[in-house]
Structure to design on (388 residues):
């Protein structure tokens, strides 16, 4: 019997071996600011659970290294992710002295390497299995539900990031609402403006180059610089235009952040609308015209439905981009998860940085999966088959 090795599996197995046996699993600090003391898996956990986790990592590495069925690899990834999530909470409880409210236990590099390795394994397994879009969304919901159960159970309460959250719970959800409002609000505005503008650029060819070049120019401006550029004109509007300040327009705050995100969002929406409409087969248009459909009927009945996968791809780019860029809005008082990121940087408190960074990554990841599913569901089956 010939033993066959999986190339990507070999890379993932090396990551698992490094994360489990070389890199520290957890970091203990006497308080939130002082340098920490790195702990391996066996040092961070009680003897029994530590041996169990190490053994599980060895078995998982062997399964990953060999050419095994994709479903088995997905199950191994799910079990391993669940195990490291459970054991990092156990490590926090084990390392924190009783009645000590100042000590902090954080996931160390080994934890993050293992998390990345098994997430990569899960993504590769799902790609090989090629599940339906609805199934992928259900897997996302199951993953988020599992994380929510662990959070509600209190297993992670000993982790430093949860201790940071406990002291800022009300502010956290307020900033979460602002972050989502900025990302989704600017996306909605860009679709309302960008979709008709893209249709116009497709129909009026002389207009196309000027509009796309202008939007390309906006994309080249760094986000911090664009936020700063908008402070002066919006401040002037707030002072000189009656009622502008009353509806929230001012030089700093959410207004310049919203406008900047809106401007950044226009290029993907407009460009993808133009490309999508240009890709509609001429035969479809000719057939629609032959049966007497008007330009309006052809646009909404033929062209936009066929162009929708490309347009949704632009919307996906915008949403993921805006979720990330909304973090920068905190620098000009726009709120969002960036508040915790920049507070943590200022206080040299990395767990506070993670309190803002982790939800941002989760939001972007979830948005990408959901919109990828929508794109695939709106793609004709013949196109999906040829793409695959």
């Amino acid at each position: 019997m010939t033993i066959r090795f999986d190339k990507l599996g070999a890379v993932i197995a090396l990551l698992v071996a490094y994360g489990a046996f070389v890199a520290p699993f957890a970091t203990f600090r006497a308080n939130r600011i002082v340098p920490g003391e790195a702990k391996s898996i066996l040092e961070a956990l009680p003897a029994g659970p530590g041996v169990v986790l190490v053994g599980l990592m060895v078995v998982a590495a062997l399964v990953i290294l060999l050419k095994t069925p994709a479903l088995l690899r997905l199950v191994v990834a799910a079990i391993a992710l669940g195990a490291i999530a459970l054991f990092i909470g156990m490590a926090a409880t084990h390392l924190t002295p009783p009645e000590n409210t100042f000590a902090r236990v954080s996931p160390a590099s080994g934890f993050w390497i293992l998390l990345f390795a098994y997430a990569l394994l899960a993504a590769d397994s799902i790609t090989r299995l090629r599940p339906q879009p609805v199934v992928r969304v259900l897997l996302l919901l199951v993953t988020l539900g599992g994380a929510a159960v662990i959070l509600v159970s209190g297993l992670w309460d000993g982790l430093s990031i949860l201790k940071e959250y406990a002291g800022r719970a009300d502010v956290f959800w307020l900033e979460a609402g602002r972050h989502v409002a900025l990302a989704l609000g600017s996306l909605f505005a860009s679709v309302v403006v960008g979709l008709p503008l893209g249709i116009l650029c497709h129909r009026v060819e002389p207009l196309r180059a000027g509009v796309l070049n202008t939007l390309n120019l906006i994309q080249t401006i760094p986000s911090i610089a664009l936020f700063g550029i908008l402070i002066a004109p919006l401040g002037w509007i707030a002072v000189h235009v009656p009622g502008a300040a009353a509806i929230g327009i001012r030089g700093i705050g959410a207004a310049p952040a919203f406008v900047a995100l809106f401007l950044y969002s226009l290029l993907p929406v407009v460009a993808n609308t133009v490309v999508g409409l240009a890709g509609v087969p001429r035969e479809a248009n000719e057939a629609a015209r032959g049966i007497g459909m008007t330009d309006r009927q052809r646009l909404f009945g033929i062209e936009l439905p066929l162009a929708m996968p490309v347009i949704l791809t632009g919307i996906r780019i915008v949403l993921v981009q805006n979720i990330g860029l909304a973090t920068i809005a905190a620098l000009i008082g726009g709120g969002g998860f960036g508040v915790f990121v920049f507070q943590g940087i200022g206080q040299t408190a990395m767990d506070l940085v993670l309190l803002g960074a982790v939800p941002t990554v989760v939001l972007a990841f979830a948005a990408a999966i959901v919109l990828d599913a929508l794109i695939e569901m709106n793609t004709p089956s013949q196109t999906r088959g040829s793409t695959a």
The longest helix spans residues 169-203. The radius of gyration is 25 Å. The chain is about 75% helix and 5% strand.
